[in-house]
Amino acid sequence: MSQRVYLFTRFERFWHWGQAALVLVLLFSGFAIRGYHDLLHFGPAVRLHETAAWLLIGLWVFAIFWHFTTGQWRQYIPTLERIGAMVRFYAYGIFLGEPHPYRQTPQRKHNPLQRLAYLGVKLVINPLVWVTGLAYLFWEPLRELAPAWLGLEQVAGLHVLGAFLMLAFVIIHVYLTTTGHTPLAHIKAMITGWETLHDDEVIEPRPRKG
Amino acid sequence: MRGQNSRPGLRCLVGLVLLWLALLWLALPALASTADHSQFEELEGPFASGEEVTEACLGCHTEAAEEVMATRHWTWEYHNPLDGEVLGKKSMLNGFCIADRSNEAFCQSCHIGYGWEDETFDFSNPFKVDCLSCHNTGDYKKVAGLAGHPAYERTEYPPGSGKFHGPTDLVEVARNVGPTSRETCGSCHFYGGGGDGVKHGDLDSSLVDAHRDLDVHMAVDGGDFRCSTCHQTESHAVPGSRIQVSAVDDNRAIRRGEQTDRNPATCQACHGNAPHEEGPMATRLNEHTRALACQTCHIPAFARGGVPTKMGWDWSTGGQLDEDGKPFQRKDDDGHVIYDSKKGDFTLGENVVPEYVWFNGDVTFTTTETEIDPDNAPVPINTYHGTPGGEDSRIWPVKLFHGKQPYDTVHNTLLVPHVAIPDDSAFWFNFDWAKALEAGTEAAGQPFSGEFDFVETTMLWPITHMVAPGEQALKCGSCHADEGRLADVEGVWLPGRDRHELLDRFGFGLAGLMLLGVLGHGALRIATRNRRKEH
User: Fold this and answer.
1) What ipTM was estimated for this complex?
2) Do B499 and A151 touch (CB under 8 A)?
3) Interface test mutation site (partner A, options B273, B471, B500, B534, max chain A beta carbons within 10 A)
4) Which of B285, B243, B287 is CA-nearest to residue B94?
5) What span, in angstroms and rounded, lies between the C-alpha atoms of B173 and B153?
6) What are A97-112's pLDDT values in tens digits?
7) Which residues span the membrane (chain A) (predicted)?
8) A112-120 vs A152-176: helix crossing angle, rounded to 10
9) What number does CATH give the domain A2-201?
10) pTM for this one?
11) Looking at beta carbons, which residues of chain B come within 8 Å of A168?
């Protein structure tokens, strides 16, 4: 038996894929600006990077607004519940064909590891990239206000650090999308919104305390 | 019927337009000046010499000589405001023709006076001022060797050379005087160092009829500026200096009529310090003016007009003679001289990409008295000062010239050679360094031990003319790149060039580990796929 659940609303999907595309464009153009590749000239890379950055900032503003008005921000409240089982599954059980120890519901779309990871993106990587990126953009007027130890060099370094963390996240994230019932199952769900839950993956979560 | 009627009307209209154009043409000289010098009785002559022309000029322009005599164009003397050092063409050294002293009769063809051939020249005699050198409109040439005079009669100079000059029709020249022009200023400033384009690199005869790609301001099909359009001259004092350069002018444009001490010849004097207005990058480009001189992006290369500039001059090979014991020249494929027995070997350059240095406008010079360190060659004849990243400095494009010239191996000083006057000691006529240096140093009042050798030198020249049209300015990637134009310029964090090595290693290491991890994990999943199916 399998069961279809509508997990991702239209806005979530738009936000997710918009963000995904923009992050990839930003990584690509950002690395061109940094001088890691020559596939884009510096000037066009800067214009592309800035355009994508403003679009992403706009998208984030909408998404933050959406999360708070819909209460969906609760999806990212961290929990250690069953986290041991999660780690055990990815480190061991997945190779034995054990069932996934977490059952998604529209109220709790993300397993505890996802919660932690996404919260990390939202609270560490995004703010780091955002703040340093804006400082980079508006460095000339900010320069006068900055303390002596903080120069464009440091701003650029922190921005690149954010980019590397984002790159690491993207690698893991993309890989984990292939760990569904079939390699493309999670990606399909993120496109259509409908996740198919299979019996062997269904384990009812423990009832919430309180 | 209508056609027939309209034809006389059309003819009438064409006639009127032609008449109007003719009137405009006649009126133009009158518009430029309220005086037509060709009508002045004072200028009917005859004039036996330049001094007599000057006397006629001063009859009306009573203060002109006093004004001129207060300028560097007259004194060839300049006190460096930085350290008070006495500079100016009269006593300065360079890596090209080296020095003026003892060669005055030759070099002073570019002095705005008559008769300066040695230190006895009377700098207080107003009739010695040469008004025509700057205000002629053609057919006036001061001959090198005649100490600032034109050839009044048909003259062979140097004697026996077969080169004839003149005669000069002083009356004709005097009756056609006008404002300065690219030709008059250029007759000296384009030919510094003994030939077209030799010294500056951004000033040569191609600017007389410049096209827009060469110089947007001076182009005949562009701004058609005279030199004085920017070098706005008051009381005959021409602003602008390569000894004390206005390297930083972080100000708005000067308003018409505004009383100011600012140099009117800077880019900012007209364009202001935030000149980019169009396009998404305008603000970003304006912010670049904190670190860059306008010239850095807007003069992508110098010597772009088809006239090569000398990038190197090796005097040490001078004096070679052919089988007949005669001096000779060697030319490159384009017909430009690259060896001359009188002068040595030349390195020429066209479309030269400048070097870039932090520059606050201060320049110090090696003079005849400066002790040099020949073991640490090349010896810098001039040094540009500036603070990398400093508010008082900007990154400037410069021509870096390489010389090799005589120095005193006992006193360790660069030496003044006597080269250009046909006598028994000048190098060009005797090819004997010892005699030439003896005579040159004596005239310059410089101690000379008699021991000499040649030492490599360098010299910097600011690149500020030959401004290209905006669309030909440098692209971002010209500098924001690993091997870009500013590859060796410190003091700025330059995205595209600068990176944090440790951070990058960490970042790519992290991403690599993640990739290895997921690849390993995926491989294990594939390897255990069968077991899962059995399950």
Assistant:
1) 0.87
2) no
3) B500
4) B243
5) 15
6) 787 777 777 777 777 7
7) 14-36, 48-69, 116-138, 158-176
8) 160
9) 1.20.950.20
10) 0.89
11) 510-511, 514
